[in-house]
Amino acid sequence: MNKIIEPNSNDTSSYLLCTENLCNFYSKRKKNKYLLFSSVGDNTTFFKHWLSDNKNYDVAIVYYGDNNENYNKYCEIVDYIECHKGSKFQNFYYYYNKHKDYLLNTYDYFFIVDDDIIIDTENINKLFDLSNKYQFWISQPSFTEKSKISHTITIQQKSNLFRYTNFVEVNTPIISNIVLNKLMNAYEPKLIGWGIDYLFIQILGLNYKDKLWYAKEEVKEFDAQKTHNKGNWGGNWKGPLGEKLMEGWLEGFPKLNFNAVTFVKRGWTEPDFHLHTDSDTPTSVDIKTTTHYANWSQEPKHDIYVWSELKGNRNNPHTLIIKGWLSKQKMTELMAEAKTNNWDEQSTKNGCYKVEREAWGKMRTDWCFTDNALESMDDFVIQIIER
To answer: What separation in angstroms does the CA of 256 have from each of 101, 216, 249, 250, 259?
Structure first.
């Protein structure tokens, strides 16, 4: 007889797997960082399309139907299952609030898809990988011309890998960990379907503009302090914008204790963040944000450096990509090797090279690290956040 394993508050090794034997599922499962969620009934063929063996995601469903045969069939083929009546987002809200900590600590992206959407595993894999590569906040697959089209902006344009837009339809959103947390905090269960896609805009578009305004105002305040000797920053609000957005990302880890250092300060000797402030050895983190492809730095002072790049119009960017990180020790090792060999951008063998450039009327030495030299943000989570 199939059963639903309910999570034990003190043991997360058993979690909502439907199975004949109550074995430890997590000792066997792949460590997927993506989750496909759907609310399914009795008139669906999702099992024909989404569940190939090569999937790079887990599948969770909330079953709202009344057919025991269908329920038992779904139990055998998905990773997590529960029964609950409601619409898709009502059921996801129920599921999310029941297992919030586990979901936010396990998955980077969530594909919350209607149960009648026909899309194969290979394309779902690509959607997740694109979202992760380009650090999309929220996105969706486009629809073929044979699909039921509700919004013309969602029609597929075959010449594009992806397009930036101000609208994502409620039937197929792929949502990042951070945005999902914000969405669920704003969502009301009385919203069944229509209107949720406009809630996406509300929590992202307006909030992002607030951060952009805040970053520009913060730079004005910084310049007014006259506490530094590097000239007026003018429009260089990119650094504090990166800091504010990374702060939002860090907030997505509910067990992480950290504080953000106020940007307006005397000198630039402080890091942007202190992580693990509840420990005897907090970690100092500095984020470097530019609109350039190069990952610049000078002599490292802090424990960790993170590099990010703003995409879009230089004065009104739409996306912050957090590209990677390096520890102070690793940076020092790479810089020493590059210095010994006098490597430049073309000749570097370890992804690090020296650049002499003018800044504020003086020549200075900077070090640059290629994207290939950086550690992944997945490793940042494992080694730094979850240390």
So the answer is: 12, 28, 11, 8, 10
Angle at 71 between CA 70 and CA 75, to 5 degrees: 115
At position 142, the amino acid (one-letter code) is: S
Q: What is the pTM of this model?
A: 0.51
Beta strand residue intervals within 7-57, DSSP E: 18-19, 34-40
Count the Cβ atoms, other than its own, within 10 Å of residue 280.
5
Collect all residues with Cβ–Cβ distance below 8 Å to 112 and sequence separation of at least 6. Answer: 37, 38, 88, 89, 92, 173, 174, 175
Distance CA 371, CA 203 (A): 31
- What region, left, alpha or beta, does residue 226 occupy, with left being phi > 0 and alpha being psi -120 to 50 degrees? left
- Coil, strand, or helix at residue 249? helix
Tokens 């460590």, residue?
31
Domain ranges (residues) in the chain:
3-194, 227-385
* Pair 174, 140: CB distance under 8 Å: yes
Q: Side by side, which strands form the sheet with 362-369? A: 295-297, 362-369, 352-359
Band (197; pLDDT cuts 50, 70, 90): confident
Q: Provide the residue type at 230 as one letter.
A: K
Higher pLDDT, 14 or 297: 297
CATH code, 3-194: 3.90.550
Locus of tokens 């914000």: 182
Q: Which two tokens stand for residue 353?
A: 């090279």
Are 114 and 88 in contact by the 8 Å Cβ rule? The answer is yes
